[in-house]
Amino acid sequence: MPTVTIEPELYQRVETAASERKTSVDEVLADAARDYLWELDRQKISQESQAYCQMHADLVECFLGKYVAVHDGTVVDHDSDMQTLYKRIRQRYGRTPVMMTLVVEEPIQVLTRKGFRLERIHQ
Questions:
Q1: What is the pTM of this model?
Q2: Nearby residues of 64 by Cβ (< 8 Å), 6 or more positions away
Q3: Any residues with CB less than 8 A from the CB of 47 and at least 6 apart, and which?
Q4: What whole-number distance in Å separates Cα of residue 77 and Cα of residue 75?
């Protein structure tokens, strides 16, 4: 197993958190790493969403009604079938966050939660 070096003061805080949660130091560190990586992924998708909005007019001209994959601010793939696109993107980029969305007339879609499913609001 790899060794990770943590400054003593931080390690003491982790030990305290583990003790308070009645869990192990390993579990606290694993949870913290998962949370940190999730936040990085969320930030990346947010950046890709901004890029999508900036490119939206051009995307509507080329890809209206199709799914696009946006990575590093660029459309890297597209398809009329989301599952097919998803499989290609995962094969190509692994677990790297890549935004995949349907190109529709409006750049921002309003969704509403009804029970446990999301539905697009038609305006």
A1: 0.76
A2: 103, 104, 105
A3: 73
A4: 6
